[in-house]
C-alpha cells in the first residue's frame, strides 16, 4: 500500500525541508518562505564529487557572487584571481583553462577553491619576480599556506581522479610561485603518473583540457633537476597527427607534443656529450629518433603554415603564432645538434637563429601595435607567467648562437618581451648570464645595449 500523505521532500531549501513542505527552489531565497514572512535558510551544499564535469563547467558567471560562505579575505582573493591572475596565466593562448575552467570549478569543488585562493594570495605578494623573504611569516603568507593545506586535505576526500589531476595542476602552480622546484616537480610527476593510469578510461573532458596542460608541464622538470629515470613520460600519445590543424590551440598542442618528446630525446643524448668518459658510440635507435623528430617538426611547420595562410590570425593572435614558430626553430636546432661532440654544430644553424631574432622583432612590433587593446595585449613584463614564453627561447639564442649581432638583438628582446618570471625561468638571472657570456666569448665589454 502506498504511503499516505505528502511525498518525502528530498530537495529544496533547508527551511522547507524542516517544515516538510514542497519548496519552489527559488534562489537566492525561495518564494515559499518569503511569501509567508519566514526566513529562507538557503540550500545545503551538494556533496563533494557529486557534480559531473558538464555541471562544473557549463555556461555560468566566471566567479559566482561572493556569499556569506566566503570570508572577506577569501572573497577578495577569488575576485583578484578572476580579474588579474587568470588573464595573466592564460598568456597568449585561446585556452580557457585559467579564465573559465578553474574559476568555475572553484565554485563547486572545495579543493579547487582553496587552491585558487592560495594561488591568488601568493601571486599578489610577488614583486618583480620573487616573494618577499618573510612572506611565509606574514599574515598574508599564513593565509595562503593555510588554504593550500586545506586544499591538500580536501583532495584526500576526492575519489574522482579527474578532480585530482585538475587540482594537481594548481598545486604545481602554488609551488612554482614559491620557487619550490623539487615540490613542483614532485606534483607534476604525480600528475603524469595518474594520467598514464587513467587516460584510457578517463573522460573526454580530461583528455581535451588536462592533457595539453600536462604535456606542457612535462617539459620544465628536465631543466630543473628532472631526469629520464625519475620523471615519467606521457604514454600512448599520437605524436604524428596528420589531420589538418583545427585551431591555434590545436597547433600549439601538436607542437607541444613534439617538444615534450624532443626534450626527453635531448636528455637521453647527454650520454654522448664530449665530457662523457666512456665516449659511447651513438646508437642507430638514437639516430632514427633524431631523424624522426626532425621530419615530424617539419611536417608540423608545413601544416601550421597552411593553416595560418587559410585562417588569417587576428592581430591579437599574432603573438602566439610568432611564439610557436620560435619554439619550432629552437626545437629543430637543438635536436639536430644535441649529439654533436662540440658546440661548433650550432654554427650551421645561423640562419635559423636569425629567423628567431626576426620573429622576436615582429613580436616587439606586435606589442606596440596592440597597445590600443590592453585586454588583448601580449602579457610581457608581467611579474609571472605559469608557462614558458619567450624567455627560454631567446636565452637559447643568446647562449648557443656565436653571431654577435644576433646575440645582442636576442638579449635586447629578452629584456623587452619576457615576463619577470616564466615558470622557474627568471629574466634578471637570464639577462645577466647572457650579458656575461657574450662579453667573455667575444672579448668585449659594454655598458649598455
UniProtKB/TrEMBL annotation:
InterPro entries: Transcr_Regulatory_Proteins, Zn2-C6_fun-type_DNA-bd_sf, Zn2Cys6_DnaBD
Keyword list, A-Z: DNA-binding, Metal-binding, Nucleus, Transcription, Transcription regulation, Zinc
Domain Zn(2)-C6 fungal-type: 12-40
CDD domains on file: GAL4
One annotated GO molecular function: DNA binding
Matching PROSITE patterns: ZN2_CY6_FUNGAL_1 (PS00463), ZN2_CY6_FUNGAL_2 (PS50048)
Name of the protein: Zn(2)-C6 fungal-type domain-containing protein
Species per Swiss-Prot/TrEMBL record: Bombardia bombarda
Organism ancestry: Eukaryota, Fungi, Dikarya, Ascomycota, Pezizomycotina
Amino acid at each position: 500500500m502506498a504511503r499516505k500523505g505528502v511525498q518525502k521532500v528530498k530537495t529544496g531549501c533547508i527551511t522547507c525541508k524542516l517544515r516538510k513542505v514542497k519548496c519552489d527552489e527559488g534562489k537566492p531565497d525561495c518564494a515559499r518562505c518569503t511569501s509567508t514572512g519566514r526566513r529562507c535558510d538557503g540550500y545545503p551544499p551538494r556533496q563533494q564529487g557529486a557534480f559531473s564535469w558538464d555541471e562544473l563547467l557549463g555556461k555560468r558567471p566566471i566567479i559566482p557572487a561572493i556569499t556569506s560562505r566566503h570570508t572577506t579575505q577569501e572573497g577578495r582573493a577569488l575576485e583578484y584571481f578572476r580579474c588579474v591572475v587568470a588573464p595573466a596565466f592564460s598568456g597568449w593562448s585561446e585556452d580557457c583553462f585559467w579564465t573559465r575552467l578553474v574559476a568555475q570549478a572553484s565554485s563547486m569543488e572545495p579543493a579547487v577553491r582553496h587552491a585558487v585562493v592560495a594561488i591568488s594570495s601568493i601571486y599578489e605578494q610577488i614583486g618583480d619576480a620573487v616573494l618577499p623573504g618573510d612572506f611565509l611569516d606574514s599574515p598574508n603568507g599564513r593565509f595562503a599556506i593555510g588554504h593550500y593545506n586545506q586544499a591538500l586535505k580536501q583532495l584526500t576526500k576526492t575519489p574522482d581522479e579527474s578532480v585530482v589531476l585538475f587540482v594537481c595542476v594548481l598545486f604545481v602552480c602554488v609551488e612554482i610561485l614559491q620557487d619550490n622546484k623539487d615540490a613542483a616537480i614532485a606534483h607534476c610527476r604525480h600528475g603524469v603518473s595518474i594520467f598514464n593510469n587513467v587516460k584510457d578510461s578517463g573522460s573526454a573532458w580530461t583528455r581535451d583540457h588536462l592533457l595539453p596542460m600536462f604535456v606542457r608541464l612535462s617539459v620544465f622538470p628536465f631543466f630543473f633537476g628532472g631526469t629520464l629515470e625519475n620523471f615519467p613520460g606521457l604514454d600512448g600519445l599520437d605524436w604524428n597527427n596528420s589531420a589538418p590543424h583545427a585551431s591555434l590551440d590545436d597547433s600549439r598542442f601538436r607542437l607541444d607534443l613534439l617538444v615534450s618528446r624532443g626534450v626527453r630525446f635531448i636528455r637521453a643524448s647527454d650520454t654522448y656529450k664530449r665530457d662523457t668518459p666512456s665516449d659511447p658510440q651513438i646508437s642507430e635507435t638514437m639516430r632514427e629518433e633524431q631523424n624522426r623528430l626532425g621530419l615530424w617538426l617539419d611536417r608540423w611547420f608545413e601544416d601550421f603554415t597552411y593553416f595560418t595562410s587559410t585562417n588569417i590570425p587576428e592581430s591579437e593572435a599574432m603573438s602566439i603564432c610568432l611564439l610557436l614558430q620560435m619554439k619550432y626553430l629552437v626545437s629543430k636546432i637543438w635536436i639536430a645538434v644535441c649529439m654533436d661532440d662540440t658546440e661548433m654544430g650550432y654554427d650551421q644553424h645561423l640562419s635559423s637563429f636569425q629567423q628567431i631574432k626576426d620573429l622576436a622583432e615582429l613580436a616587439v612590433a606586435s606589442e606596440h601595435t596592440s597597445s590600443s587593446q590592453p585586454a588583448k595585449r601580449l602579457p610581457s613584463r608581467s611579474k609571472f607567467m605559469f608557462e614558458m614564453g619567450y624567455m627560454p627561447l631567446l636565452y637559447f639564442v643568446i647562449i648557443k648562437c656565436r653571431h654577435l649581432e644576433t646575440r645582442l638583438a636576442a638579449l635586447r628582446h629578452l629584456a623587452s618581451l619576457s615576463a619577470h618570471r616564466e615558470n622557474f625561468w627568471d629574466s634578471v638571472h637570464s639577462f645577466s648570464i647572457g650579458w656575461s657570456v657574450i662579453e667573455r666569448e667575444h672579448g668585449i665589454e659594454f655598458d649598455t645595449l
